[in-house]
Amino acid sequence: MAGSAPAMFLVEGGAQGLKVSGLPGMDLTRRVSAVTFDATPAVLLGQGEAAAAALDRAERDFLLAIAAEAAGGIGWCLDAAVAYARDREQSGRPAGSFEAVAHACVDMLAAFQSASSAARYAANADADGAAEAPEAARVAALRAGRAYRAVAESAIRLFGGIGFTWQQGSGSVTSPRKPPAGSQPTCARSARPWAISADRGPGPPVPVRSR
Fold first, then answer.
1. Topology of 55-200 in CATH?
2. Half-sphere exposure (Cβ direction) of 196: Cα atoms closer than 13 Å
Protein backbone atom coordinates (compact mmCIF):
# COMPACT_ATOMS: atom_id res chain seq x y z
CA MET A 1 0.00 0.00 0.00
CA ALA A 2 1.15 3.54 -0.75
CA GLY A 3 -0.80 5.57 1.75
CA SER A 4 -4.37 4.34 1.43
CA ALA A 5 -4.06 3.20 -2.20
CA PRO A 6 -2.84 -0.18 -3.47
CA ALA A 7 0.63 -0.07 -4.99
CA MET A 8 3.19 -2.31 -6.71
CA PHE A 9 6.91 -2.18 -5.92
CA LEU A 10 10.02 -3.76 -7.43
CA VAL A 11 12.52 -5.23 -4.96
CA GLU A 12 15.87 -6.62 -6.04
CA GLY A 13 16.88 -10.07 -4.83
CA GLY A 14 19.31 -9.85 -1.95
CA ALA A 15 18.22 -6.32 -1.03
CA GLN A 16 18.72 -5.22 2.56
CA GLY A 17 15.77 -6.19 4.76
CA LEU A 18 14.48 -8.80 2.29
CA LYS A 19 14.16 -12.29 3.76
CA VAL A 20 12.95 -15.39 1.92
CA SER A 21 12.37 -18.39 4.18
CA GLY A 22 11.57 -21.84 2.83
CA LEU A 23 8.51 -23.54 4.27
CA PRO A 24 8.04 -27.29 4.70
CA GLY A 25 5.48 -28.93 2.45
CA MET A 26 4.30 -32.33 1.27
CA ASP A 27 4.56 -31.44 -2.40
CA LEU A 28 8.22 -32.05 -3.22
CA THR A 29 7.76 -30.73 -6.77
CA ARG A 30 6.94 -27.18 -5.64
CA ARG A 31 8.89 -24.79 -3.42
CA VAL A 32 6.94 -22.66 -0.96
CA SER A 33 8.50 -19.69 0.82
CA ALA A 34 7.57 -16.85 3.14
CA VAL A 35 8.81 -13.40 2.08
CA THR A 36 9.24 -10.61 4.62
CA PHE A 37 10.40 -7.01 4.28
CA ASP A 38 12.03 -4.81 6.88
CA ALA A 39 12.70 -1.28 5.66
CA THR A 40 13.63 -2.81 2.30
CA PRO A 41 14.48 -0.36 -0.52
CA ALA A 42 12.00 -0.67 -3.41
CA VAL A 43 11.03 1.06 -6.64
CA LEU A 44 7.41 2.12 -7.03
CA LEU A 45 6.00 0.67 -10.27
CA GLY A 46 2.42 1.86 -10.01
CA GLN A 47 -0.34 2.68 -7.60
CA GLY A 48 -4.05 3.30 -7.43
CA GLU A 49 -6.22 1.89 -10.18
CA ALA A 50 -3.27 0.79 -12.32
CA ALA A 51 -1.81 -1.27 -9.48
CA ALA A 52 -5.19 -2.75 -8.59
CA ALA A 53 -5.77 -3.76 -12.22
CA ALA A 54 -2.33 -5.39 -12.43
CA LEU A 55 -2.90 -7.32 -9.22
CA ASP A 56 -6.31 -8.48 -10.43
CA ARG A 57 -4.70 -9.62 -13.69
CA ALA A 58 -2.03 -11.57 -11.83
CA GLU A 59 -4.64 -13.15 -9.55
CA ARG A 60 -6.73 -14.25 -12.53
CA ASP A 61 -3.74 -15.78 -14.30
CA PHE A 62 -2.86 -17.63 -11.12
CA LEU A 63 -6.37 -19.05 -10.74
CA LEU A 64 -6.52 -20.10 -14.39
CA ALA A 65 -3.19 -21.90 -14.00
CA ILE A 66 -4.40 -23.64 -10.85
CA ALA A 67 -7.59 -24.79 -12.59
CA ALA A 68 -5.66 -26.08 -15.61
CA GLU A 69 -3.14 -27.90 -13.43
CA ALA A 70 -5.91 -29.53 -11.43
CA ALA A 71 -7.76 -30.64 -14.57
CA GLY A 72 -4.55 -32.20 -15.88
CA GLY A 73 -3.98 -33.99 -12.58
CA ILE A 74 -7.52 -35.32 -12.59
CA GLY A 75 -7.00 -36.59 -16.13
CA TRP A 76 -3.86 -38.47 -15.06
CA CYS A 77 -5.64 -40.02 -12.09
CA LEU A 78 -8.48 -41.13 -14.35
CA ASP A 79 -6.19 -42.69 -16.97
CA ALA A 80 -4.07 -44.46 -14.37
CA ALA A 81 -7.07 -45.75 -12.41
CA VAL A 82 -8.85 -47.05 -15.52
CA ALA A 83 -5.68 -48.80 -16.73
CA TYR A 84 -5.13 -50.36 -13.32
CA ALA A 85 -8.76 -51.49 -13.03
CA ARG A 86 -8.54 -53.04 -16.49
CA ASP A 87 -5.27 -54.91 -15.92
CA ARG A 88 -5.56 -55.83 -12.24
CA GLU A 89 -7.33 -59.09 -11.45
CA GLN A 90 -9.17 -59.96 -8.27
CA SER A 91 -10.66 -63.43 -7.71
CA GLY A 92 -9.95 -64.25 -11.33
CA ARG A 93 -11.83 -61.20 -12.65
CA PRO A 94 -10.64 -57.78 -13.84
CA ALA A 95 -10.98 -55.30 -10.99
CA GLY A 96 -12.96 -53.00 -13.28
CA SER A 97 -15.71 -55.60 -13.59
CA PHE A 98 -16.74 -54.99 -9.99
CA GLU A 99 -19.58 -52.49 -9.73
CA ALA A 100 -17.98 -50.37 -7.00
CA VAL A 101 -14.77 -49.95 -8.99
CA ALA A 102 -16.64 -49.16 -12.21
CA HIS A 103 -18.78 -46.55 -10.47
CA ALA A 104 -15.70 -44.94 -8.94
CA CYS A 105 -14.11 -44.62 -12.38
CA VAL A 106 -17.30 -43.12 -13.81
CA ASP A 107 -17.38 -40.56 -10.99
CA MET A 108 -13.78 -39.66 -11.76
CA LEU A 109 -14.66 -39.17 -15.43
CA ALA A 110 -17.56 -36.88 -14.47
CA ALA A 111 -15.24 -34.85 -12.22
CA PHE A 112 -12.68 -34.57 -15.03
CA GLN A 113 -15.28 -33.32 -17.49
CA SER A 114 -16.65 -30.81 -14.99
CA ALA A 115 -13.24 -29.41 -14.06
CA SER A 116 -12.04 -29.31 -17.66
CA SER A 117 -15.22 -27.60 -18.83
CA ALA A 118 -14.96 -24.93 -16.13
CA ALA A 119 -11.26 -24.33 -16.84
CA ARG A 120 -11.79 -24.04 -20.58
CA TYR A 121 -14.77 -21.76 -20.18
CA ALA A 122 -12.77 -19.50 -17.87
CA ALA A 123 -9.83 -19.43 -20.27
CA ASN A 124 -12.10 -18.58 -23.20
CA ALA A 125 -13.86 -15.87 -21.21
CA ASP A 126 -10.50 -14.36 -20.29
CA ALA A 127 -9.24 -14.49 -23.88
CA ASP A 128 -12.43 -12.81 -25.11
CA GLY A 129 -12.29 -10.12 -22.41
CA ALA A 130 -15.75 -11.11 -21.18
CA ALA A 131 -17.22 -9.37 -18.15
CA GLU A 132 -17.65 -12.67 -16.32
CA ALA A 133 -13.96 -13.62 -16.75
CA PRO A 134 -12.92 -12.83 -13.13
CA GLU A 135 -15.82 -14.83 -11.70
CA ALA A 136 -15.27 -17.67 -14.16
CA ALA A 137 -11.60 -17.94 -13.08
CA ARG A 138 -12.56 -18.15 -9.41
CA VAL A 139 -15.26 -20.72 -10.10
CA ALA A 140 -12.90 -22.82 -12.22
CA ALA A 141 -10.19 -22.85 -9.54
CA LEU A 142 -12.67 -23.70 -6.80
CA ARG A 143 -14.44 -26.42 -8.77
CA ALA A 144 -11.22 -27.98 -10.06
CA GLY A 145 -9.61 -27.88 -6.62
CA ARG A 146 -12.51 -29.69 -5.00
CA ALA A 147 -12.63 -32.25 -7.79
CA TYR A 148 -8.86 -32.80 -7.69
CA ARG A 149 -8.94 -33.67 -4.02
CA ALA A 150 -11.90 -36.05 -4.39
CA VAL A 151 -10.46 -37.80 -7.46
CA ALA A 152 -6.97 -38.17 -5.97
CA GLU A 153 -8.39 -39.78 -2.85
CA SER A 154 -10.61 -42.06 -4.93
CA ALA A 155 -7.61 -43.11 -7.05
CA ILE A 156 -5.60 -43.92 -3.92
CA ARG A 157 -8.39 -46.22 -2.72
CA LEU A 158 -8.60 -47.94 -6.11
CA PHE A 159 -4.85 -48.54 -6.19
CA GLY A 160 -4.93 -50.00 -2.70
CA GLY A 161 -1.68 -50.28 -0.76
CA ILE A 162 0.61 -49.31 -3.65
CA GLY A 163 -1.31 -46.04 -4.05
CA PHE A 164 0.60 -44.59 -1.11
CA THR A 165 4.04 -45.27 -2.60
CA TRP A 166 6.11 -43.00 -4.83
CA GLN A 167 6.77 -45.98 -7.09
CA GLN A 168 3.15 -46.09 -8.18
CA GLY A 169 2.95 -42.36 -8.91
CA SER A 170 -0.38 -41.36 -7.40
CA GLY A 171 1.45 -40.08 -4.33
CA SER A 172 2.64 -37.14 -6.41
CA VAL A 173 -0.92 -35.91 -6.87
CA THR A 174 -2.16 -36.35 -3.33
CA SER A 175 -0.01 -33.53 -1.96
CA PRO A 176 -1.14 -30.72 -4.28
CA ARG A 177 -4.71 -31.99 -4.55
CA LYS A 178 -5.97 -28.94 -2.66
CA PRO A 179 -5.83 -25.45 -4.19
CA PRO A 180 -2.66 -23.68 -2.96
CA ALA A 181 -3.11 -21.47 0.05
CA GLY A 182 -2.80 -18.36 -2.09
CA SER A 183 -6.03 -19.17 -3.92
CA GLN A 184 -8.10 -19.65 -0.79
CA PRO A 185 -8.57 -15.97 0.22
CA THR A 186 -9.86 -15.20 -3.26
CA CYS A 187 -12.62 -17.76 -2.93
CA ALA A 188 -13.19 -17.08 0.76
CA ARG A 189 -13.95 -13.41 0.17
CA SER A 190 -17.37 -14.45 -0.97
CA ALA A 191 -17.48 -18.15 -0.23
CA ARG A 192 -21.19 -18.80 -0.57
CA PRO A 193 -21.69 -17.10 -3.97
CA TRP A 194 -18.66 -18.89 -5.41
CA ALA A 195 -19.80 -22.20 -4.00
CA ILE A 196 -23.20 -21.76 -5.62
CA SER A 197 -21.55 -20.79 -8.90
CA ALA A 198 -19.24 -23.77 -8.72
CA ASP A 199 -22.25 -26.05 -8.53
CA ARG A 200 -24.20 -24.33 -11.29
CA GLY A 201 -21.22 -23.48 -13.46
CA PRO A 202 -20.23 -20.11 -14.93
CA GLY A 203 -22.09 -20.74 -18.15
CA PRO A 204 -22.62 -23.29 -20.90
CA PRO A 205 -19.93 -25.98 -20.78
CA VAL A 206 -17.56 -26.23 -23.66
CA PRO A 207 -16.97 -29.61 -25.30
CA VAL A 208 -14.25 -31.76 -23.80
CA ARG A 209 -12.39 -34.60 -25.40
CA SER A 210 -13.89 -37.99 -24.84
CA ARG A 211 -12.07 -40.69 -22.94
1. Butyryl-CoA Dehydrogenase, subunit A; domain 3 (1.20.140)
2. 3
